[in-house]
Amino acid sequence: ILNVEQSPQSLHVQEGDSTNFTCSFPSSNFYALHWYRWETAKSPEALFVMTLNGDEKKKGRISATLNTKEGYSYLYIKGSQPEDSATYLCAHTQGGSEKLVFGKGTKLTVNP
Amino acid sequence: EAQVTQNPRYLITVTGKKLTVTCSQNMNHEYMSWYRQDPGLGLRQIYYSMNVEVTDKGDVPEGYKVSRKEKRNFPLILESPSPNQTSLYFCASSLSGGSGGTQYFGPGTRLTVL
Questions:
Q1: Burial grade of A91 (CB within 10 A; 0-12, 13-18, 19 or more)
Q2: What is the per-residue pLDDT across B6-48, written as a single tens digit (0 to 9) for each?
Q3: What is the mean pLDDT of residues B62-69?
Q4: Distance between the two ends of chain A, CA-based, in angstroms?
Q5: Min CA distance, A40 vs chain B (Å)?
């Protein structure tokens, strides 16, 4: 994988459902993996930055895991609420580079 | 209040007319960068700066210039804008760790080049 890829592209769930989505990135020379939440008409806001293989981070109902050896990260949302509706972006950086490469995002819609 | 500010927020201009979008942060952050957001393409990094007088190209630097003469400011310059630079632009900064640090985004600048 040369780029950062996110799946699915979009997702519709019902309020109360738990959901998860994937970010895939190059596994070589890994440095950091970011997750951001981006609501319409606002700016992206940081959720997590993870640097170590096996990292798990949690913020309220949202959590993320990281597997640097196979090059993927999962974002989980437990008991989705309408206010969770947003585009979730992941971004990756490799050691030796200060470039930050973003995926195209997963657009989540939570229906009441 | 800790923040990243961008000006202007909206701009409509014509092809070839030089423009500058300013970005300023009040958090003493070392790393600053510019991104453009286009439908279906996600956020793409244009330029970044590790510190004063240290800048480098991101993935889509063509047609843009930047400067970092002061730590707090990182203006984006379009010397001769073209319609394909119509986009939503975000400036961001982070305290440390370069691209490994949490990025704080400005409010965005929506640019239309006619």
A1: buried
A2: 999 999 999 999 999 999 999 999 999 999 999 988 899 999 9
A3: 97
A4: 36
A5: 12
Spatial distance between the Cα atoms of B101 and B110, rounded to a whole number of angstroms:
26
Q: Under an 8 A CB cutoff, do A43 and B107 touch?
A: yes
Picking from B103, B104, B109, B110 by the largest number of A CB atoms within 10 A of its own CB, the best residue to mutate is: B103
Closest residue on chain B to A105 (Cα): B42
Distance from CA of B50 to the nearest CA of A (A): 8
Long-range contacts at A10-15 (CB < 8 A, ≥ 24 apart): A10/A106, A10/A107, A10/A108, A10/A109, A11/A106, A11/A107, A11/A108, A11/A109, A12/A109, A12/A111, A13/A80, A13/A108, A13/A109, A13/A110, A13/A111, A14/A80, A14/A110, A14/A111, A15/A80, A15/A81, A15/A82, A15/A110, A15/A111, A15/A112
pLDDT score for B17: 96
pLDDT (tens digit per residue) in A33-85? 999 999 999 999 999 999 999 999 999 999 999 999 999 999 999 999 999 99
Neighbours of A80 (CB within 10 A): 22
**Residue in chain B nearest A100 by alpha carbon:** B99
